[in-house]
Design goal:
Layout (H helix, E strand, L loop, with lengths): L11 E2 L12 H8 L3 H6 L3 E5 L18 E6 L6 E7 L14 H41 L5 H9 L5 H10 L5 H5 L4 H16 L7 H7 L15 H24 L3 H5 L2 H13 L12 H22 L2 H7 L29 H12 L20 H6 L2 H22 L31
Helix pairs in contact: 3-7, 3-11, 3-12, 9-12, 9-16
Length: 442
């Protein structure tokens, strides 16, 4: 269930006509799922995570990491979302399943988790930072200081570009934190970030939240059953519904009708600046309706307030980077046969563990709780409120009121009598609006 909450950007459903490279033996697949792998795929019940491209990166000497491929499935009887198999690759010829020994299966899960943490960081850098930075910079070139849309972009992207100095001086530089903690150094991190930007992150409308989830077969799938639980979307959809309502009111407060949009030369100039000069793929080069503006602003808000926070910030130290199941790096060659007796040689020692905890804790945003930098009070920031009109201030109050109710619900979450919350064996409250960053927090 981590793939439907903590690590939301790696998973997709396998199409019935797709050719896959992992083949789980029929007998094993039937013991786990009651059906063969091919039957699961034909019914649209099979899902995959594919980090095999990581094998193309150069590992630091003495560090180890998989380039994992993993299958998950929707159980034909219970409807539960469960793991089927993990193949580590990158030095391991094995394919692990839940039928293996406890140590073998746990090692496989650790390898997959480690890959997901790496992918999360460099996908977030590309999809959240690169995209929002380009939009922000284009806005500085197109809008006058008093333009209301520029004021909104400035509020959302308040820390645009701020991370670049810290990243170059303490993260990706030779001998710095990436090289100290991960299996690949900073140069490899930059290379990988560029790769995921090109393959997944750079398109604008194609990566609208619902569009992306539908494309990956996680939402409104026409060739397979619905996920019984989808914690990430369950929470994010509430926030984005409130966000869209606010943005609709914001746009309506300044543009009486679509004709007003067409007459705003600064706004039209911004769209051209982003699409042509900044060359953001799939960003509309023209605009003629208020709805189009709401769509663009909603996606910008999603990148900054949702996507960024789901992969970075508080998630690292609270969920995605928690030891011992989520080490940033492994420290022993992978076995070529099953039957691991101890996991300790693979895991970080005390010093490496403390180093990982310290690094990830730096990204935690505890001080933003109930401040204007939180999702809850994002539009309650004094300078922003002082520049907008009464209609927008009223919309901001409605936004906060709506998300306060959701925050109260999230705060009451606990494990039920079956030891589950949202179908998971842990309580996931990353998107409590009181504590989740609404800005580019790190």
């Amino acid at each position: 269930m981590e793939r439907l909450s903590v690590h939301p950007e790696s998973l997709r459903r396998v199409r019935p006509d797709e050719i896959v490279t992992i083949q789980v033996e029929d007998e094993i697949a039937q013991k786990i799922s009651t059906q063969t792998q091919s039957s699961l795929q034909a019914q649209g019940r099979l899902f995959i995570i594919d980090h095999s491209s990581l094998a193309n990166l150069t590992l630091t000497a003495g560090r180890y990491a998989g380039a994992c491929q993993a299958f998950f499935f929707i159980h034909p009887v219970s409807g539960d979302f469960l793991p089927l198999a993990i193949r580590p690759n990158n030095g391991s010829p094995l394919t692990y399943t839940p039928l293996d020994s406890a140590n073998d299966w746990k090692l496989a899960k650790i390898l997959l988790n480690s890959n997901d943490v790496w992918h999360n960081q460099w996908y977030h850098l590309a999809a959240a930072h690169f995209s929002s930075d380009l939009v922000w910079m284009s806005a500085t070139r197109a809008f006058s200081d008093a333009h209301p849309v520029w004021g909104l972009i400035r509020r959302l992207g308040v820390n645009s570009f701020a991370y670049r100095v810290a990243a170059s001086e303490s993260l990706v530089c030779p001998g710095c934190d990436i090289e100290k903690n991960f299996p690949w150094n900073g140069a490899e991190a930059v290379t990988y970030s560029q790769q995921v930007w090109q393959s997944d992150g750079k398109a604008w409308r194609r990566n609208y939240l619902s569009t992306k989830l539908v494309r990956r077969g996680l939402l409104n799938c026409k060739y397979g059953p619905t996920l019984k639980f989808f914690p990430y979307y369950e929470d994010v959809s509430v926030i984005m519904h409130a966000m869209r309502a606010f943005l609709t009111d914001f746009v309506d407060a300044y543009y009486e009708n679509d004709d007003a949009i067409a007459k705003d030369v600064e706004l039209i100039g911004w769209f051209k600046e982003v699409a042509v000069e900044a060359s953001i793929v799939d960003f509309p080069s023209s605009i003629s309706t208020r709805l189009e503006l709401v769509d663009v602003l909603a996606h910008l808000a999603y990148l900054i307030s949702i996507l960024h926070g789901s992969l970075n910030s508080n998630s690292l130290v609270q969920y995605s980077g928690v030891l011992p199941m989520h080490p940033l790096c492994l420290y022993h060659p992978f076995p070529v046969e099953k039957g691991v007796t101890s996991l300790l040689p693979f895991l970080p020692d005390l010093n490496a563990s403390l180093q990982q905890i310290a690094l990830l804790a730096n990204f935690n945003q505890g001080p933003i709780i109930n401040t204007p930098d939180s999702i809850l009070f994002l539009f309650d920031e004094p300078s922003f409120k002082g520049r907008v009109n009464d209609k927008v201030r009223a919309a901001a109050e409605r936004y906060t009121s709506t998300l306060q109710k959701f925050s109260d619900e999230v705060g009451k979450r606990k494990l039920d009598s079956d030891g589950l919350s949202q179908g998971m064996p842990f309580v996931w409250n990353l998107f409590n609006p009181e504590t989740a960053p609404g800005i580019l927090a790190a």
